Amino acid sequence: MVLKVSEILLLPRRKLIVSSQEINLNKVDDGKRENTIFVLMVKESSGSAGGRGGGSGMRKIDRIFAFKITGNSDDQIYETEDPQEIEEFDIPYSAVAMDIVLESGISSVVQGVIDPDMVNGYLELIKKAT
């Protein structure tokens, strides 16, 4: 099932975002704007809500989505729930609170990083997987 990036970002579950630049899905005047966004869905488990005891512990990813944003269109370019594929992706442990702007213009805060190098590494992984 192909989804829009804003639908995924609004899902009420923990996720880590890795993007090549700031996320503003409301820009209507910049047709040349490009961004690649990876959404790593954090597996829900008892005891993982909120903290990891001073930052220790593991974040387990159970699903990954990737989107290519060009101008006002977003195309889902990848999705997996395969544990072997997911294991290849580095988890951004340096994720921080990140402000994003959704298509509606509403601001939201997500956990993530802006890291073009990590995005490029992820793109290489999905080339191998497909």
Describe the structure.
This protein has 130 residues and is an alpha+beta fold. The chain has one domain. It has helices at 5-9, 83-87, 116-129; strands at 15-19, 34-42, 61-70, 73-80, 96-101, 107-114. It has a 6-stranded mixed sheet. A hairpin with a 2-residue loop joins strand 3 and strand 4. The chain is globular and about 40 Å long.
Shape by Cα distribution: globular
Secondary-structure element series: HEEEEHEEH
Mean pLDDT: 86
How many domains? The number is: 1
| Main beta sheet | 6 strands, mixed
- Tally of DSSP β-strands: 6
How many H/I helical runs?
A: 3
Radius of gyration over alpha carbons? 14 Å
Low-confidence runs of at least 5 consecutive residues: none
Q: Please indicate the percent range of residues in DSSP E strands (runs of 2 or more).
A: 35-45%
First-last Cα distance: 17 Å
Give the proportion of residues in helices. Answer: 10-25%
Biggest sheet strand order reads: 4-3-2-1-6-5
